Protein 1
Amino acid sequence: MKKNVAIRPQEPDLSNDPALRTEAFQQAREARRSELAEDYVELIDDLIREGGEARQVDIAARLGVAQPTVARMLRKLVEEGLVQRKAYRGVFLTDSGRELAQASRERHEIVEQFLVAIGVPPETAQRDAEGIEHHVSEETLAAFRRFTEAQRR
Amino acid sequence: MKKNVAIRPQEPDLSNDPALRTEAFQQAREARRSELAEDYVELIDDLIREGGEARQVDIAARLGVAQPTVARMLRKLVEEGLVQRKAYRGVFLTDSGRELAQASRERHEIVEQFLVAIGVPPETAQRDAEGIEHHVSEETLAAFRRFTEAQRR
DNA sequence: AGATCAATATAGCATATGCTATATTTATTT
DNA sequence: AAATAAATATAGCATATGCTATATTGATCT
Ligand SMILES: [Mn+2]
Ligand SMILES: [Mn+2]
Ligand SMILES: [Mn+2]
Ligand SMILES: [Mn+2]
């Protein structure tokens, strides 16, 4: 497979570097692995704030999945040290879980507000942010923050 | 579970509507299901442009996965009518596959260029775009396009 | 042509995330 | 307190996406 690139030493065509491309795919795959944990702890934190407790049925309703799906995921989050549960009582966040929830919520808000700031309708911003948030690096997040902040003047 | 929301008829707090939240989660889950197919056809199209053919080993190397993983996914893409293969020759895109590749590439470029436009370093933009692209609605894409375009003056 | 190398195919394993059906346990109502 | 309802637990199934090991097929070199 011969490459068909113009050689321009002055302007290294980074947009087509295969190694970088591979890194990008790997980063996206990696992000997919932490997505669910982030959404869960953020949601559990929300539910506790809203109503003092986070029950499986409520988590399932919000996520739009079945209750046994939530039950299994919670078991895993307990193993990962993010969640505690008292059987047949609601679930709670560990310190580590609260930290992750906090970070996730902040990132989520920054992404959502940024989308609104560039002119995306609020409902759409909310929908898109739910997926985008997991693929935004610190650098991109910083750029989002800068823009939204500047916009506010 | 009682809700703890301030009632403000003038300003419906849409940012906290549970039904919308659920839709957002569903949209993100849905997006995850089409991600791989999009990346595959886009990549196959790239490889064919670069070198006239797309072989499993090259696809695997670019994606950073093992060859049997690619073999199985290609079988699935054939079932979905996006890809054709001649055994032990490379793989090719069907008309439908080419369409999806085209759309995916355009979206990918818009996202990446937009990130650069708001000040994200190009390498980071490339990495983040690989994941973000799959979660961007038409409306958000339009906003990205507008901004990048305006920036170019 | 035969040997060797490269690419692809296939089998089998693992984990993740969805589902339905149903048993068990707790909460609520009568 | 017993009956009923609600929530949770568990079993079993399905699909998706990774992996390694290995067989098969095709391409290349001597
Ligand atoms: Mn979120
Ligand atoms: Mn999310
Ligand atoms: Mn892409
Ligand atoms: Mn991608």
Note: The CA atoms of residues 44 and 54 of chain A lie 6 Å apart.
Protein 2
Amino acid sequence: MENRCENCIIRQFNSLRALNKDELKKVSDSKISKKIKKGDTLFIEGQKLDGVFCVRDGVSKLSKLSSNGKEQIVKLTNKGEIMGQRSVIAEDFTNLSATAINDMEVCFIPKEVISNTLNTNPYFSLEVLRHMAHDLKEADDVIVNMSQKTVKQRLAEAFIYLRKNYGEDEDGFLSLTLSRDDYANIVGAATESLIRMISEFKKKGFIKTEGKKIGVLKEDTLQELADGF
Amino acid sequence: MENRCENCIIRQFNSLRALNKDELKKVSDSKISKKIKKGDTLFIEGQKLDGVFCVRDGVSKLSKLSSNGKEQIVKLTNKGEIMGQRSVIAEDFTNLSATAINDMEVCFIPKEVISNTLNTNPYFSLEVLRHMAHDLKEADDVIVNMSQKTVKQRLAEAFIYLRKNYGEDEDGFLSLTLSRDDYANIVGAATESLIRMISEFKKKGFIKTEGKKIGVLKEDTLQELADGF
DNA sequence: TCTAAAACATGATAATTGTCAGTTTTTAAC
DNA sequence: GTTAAAAACTGACAATTATCATGTTTTAGA
């Protein structure tokens, strides 16, 4: 049992930091550490979740299947985030599927522990509330982008977002490597359209590619493009 | 002071129902009733809100300006809903503007009362959390619709939504009358495109119109259309 | 009631994006 | 290492949607 929540720095980045010692002990005693392989799924939309997942390492995509059978990625999660809280709080089925984009390390925390703490520790509720408020704001922004911007603008924005949030390696390629399909499902476009746009960006010198890897060359130009110039 | 929160049925539909007598008294003593005329604005995106609005009557649109200058309506609020909580909780500027679609009656509740209660009454926090969880789920659905469905599908869906949530009058017209511009800003399309589609739906007998008013004639057909047939 | 402004409407055309069909490259399993 | 499957890519074409131009109707205020 070397991995105790008490010693886990990750929790400083999420709502679990509002827990007191006793509560933290309960969480730690009941949590189950899991390793998720790239491509594996944490949960599928429509499932009932028995708990939440705290991401120690790796990135996952939260997506939803449209009635036309296409996947839409609603959000990418990063280290420190908690997944599945919406479903546990609303005592509802998940509306999203979670799939690992690279190898992940997560802790599963049973819902009883979470809901007990929500009922007794208002600071914890408030922390969860703040995080959800943040998610809601981001979701609103996505709605506006989806409806008012072109695919090209959304793609430019995606590259900037990925660089900002996940960084790049020593050769200037985005640290988070996504498939073309994933890109298409983030910006909400046909895969072929998206590939064409990547080619275009590359030809124009905005980005560089090497296999799946993509590197941002002209962030300013991409930003202008995203803003509509 | 005839209008006391203690006697207001509206609060049964929102998170205020989790308040105890004392808390409710505080809310009631500090609240300010306001009448908002159709077309007037409750708040504008980027403002700092000093409180939340509890909707007693009327409908408002929550919208956001895109960088291209077009408005996107993110959500319509109805009787009983509380507006501005996200901003108050996150101690953040509003990301949305709120505009009255018809004449409204709202109560303004100062943020201090709200945040005090959030800090002390976990049931209230939990209720707010549930409502926000619901909003977040709805936002996810909107994202998927925006990116995966055609304008025609989204319009069909909008008519069904409006009938279901706001009802219709004795002549079969939607109770909530929106301008063509508002419709365009809900489904995320150019106003001209939208008007054309309304004409098409009318020609095909799916809906009827009389001036601004629109009535759903074939809900099943619209539903099939929205689902992609 | 008159009048200007706003909202509604339609046509022509252009831009954006999707679909289908096929080729090449990469990946992963045996 | 070979090979089958998956992913990446390209072209041709079609469908969707936006834009611009213009006319008509409705609405609200003097």
Note: The CA atoms of residues 22 and 122 of chain A lie 15 Å apart.
